[in-house]
Specification:
By secondary structure, the protein is α+β, with helices and mostly antiparallel strands. Helix 1 packs across helix 2.
Length: about 110
Amino acid sequence: ASAATALERKSGDAREFALLTTALLRAAGIPADPVAGLLFAGGRFYLHAWTEVYLGRWVPVDAMLGQFPADAGHLPFENGAVDLGPDLARVLSRLPLTVVRVDTAR
């Protein structure tokens, strides 16, 4: 589905929320990029998508979870896209990962 579909339905998945948030910010003249990555929540990693918005520095925003800024559990793998591709997504979702450091610089 697309950003327009999510807006029309007033619902969607993480990908659709990221695309819609990015589109709305850009329409307002605010630099924004969709991001694909992993979300660490409840002791597990999940494939996820969110938006980074430029407000003097790049700030992660998760409209689906209502986080501004998004918490440190958001691990970006690809800026400018909301899909990691099925092969990479399958591998990443099975990796035993541990958070050792948080770096907020882009």
